[in-house]
Amino acid sequence: RDLHSFPTRRSSDLRFTFNPVLNRHANMNLLFLKSKQNQVFGTFSGYVLLDDKRIYFEDVFGFAEKVENRW
Fold it and tell me: Which residue has the higher pLDDT, 20 or 1?
């Protein structure tokens, strides 16, 4: 899976796109500790529907991540 093309959330109340800037990933596997991390930082643009009004946002910095930890 291409880590630079995350699916976007779509519903009648929220619609946005995520534009990745940086992909940070780390893997650690010690005897009783395992961690797989994938964090993609970038910007969100879109709108949210509140009280029948669209509130637009553009280039809001944030991140999406997938993390698996075992200990």
Answer: 20
Q: What distance lies between CA 29 and its chain's CA centroid? A: 24
Report which residue type is found at 39: Q
Listed in sequence order, the DSSP H helices in 1-71 are none
Q: pTM for the full model?
A: 0.67
* Residue whose entry in the numeric block shows the structure tokens 């990745």: 20
C-alpha closest to that of 23 among 41, 5, 1, 44: 41
- The β-bridge partners of 54 are 49
E-assigned strand segments in 1-71: 14-29, 34-50, 53-70
CA 49 and chain centroid, separation: 20
